[in-house]
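Chain and conformation:
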Amino acid sequence: MTRKTGAAATWNPDNIVTYWLTVGLLFAAVAAAGVGSIDGLLHYAQYIVDAPEKQWVLPVAVDVFLVATALATLALRKRRAYLAAWLTSAFTIALVSFSAYCNYTYMVSTTDMTADPASAAAPYVKAAMPILLLAATEIIAAITSTRNNRENSPLNRAHREVKKYKAEVAALKRAARRGIPESIHMATARALHELNAPGKELA
């Protein structure tokens, strides 16, 4: 008696639908973390910038710059500029720490901890926003810049070679039908014979 366990009911998570769904959700997480982090930075901006309409400069200078340095770090690692990558990575950590501190102290100064015991976690949640912003940015960059290793596996390379050879043989056969000498027919037959075995194994 055969028992169906569902063990073979698997799916490949590395497909184009999952890719774009993941990237879209991560971009939403970046936007949400940026919005969640902006209050604390705007609170401190009032001590730096006199005009209220210009207080947006601090969130841009910190959180947007944070995202830029995180992406720059990955690009510099790809170029093997390790010293520059280390410096930008350290600067990214400094920006995250500063943004987390601003958000933490903002919540501590504006939240009445005695009114609601659950609000005691609010400063920590607020401080986690720039950390989530950095994490989502790093994951997006990793997903969009990493190639699927299966494309370069030995089996896939062999499939591509067989497909290439079959196309060349087909071209030779077409040329032979147009009046190329009989020796071409013989070469074509030998090539087909050599391709039959690997073609069947890789099919």
Remarks:
- The radius of gyration is 29 Å.
- Residues 16-146 form one domain.
- Residues 16-48 form the longest helix (33 residues).
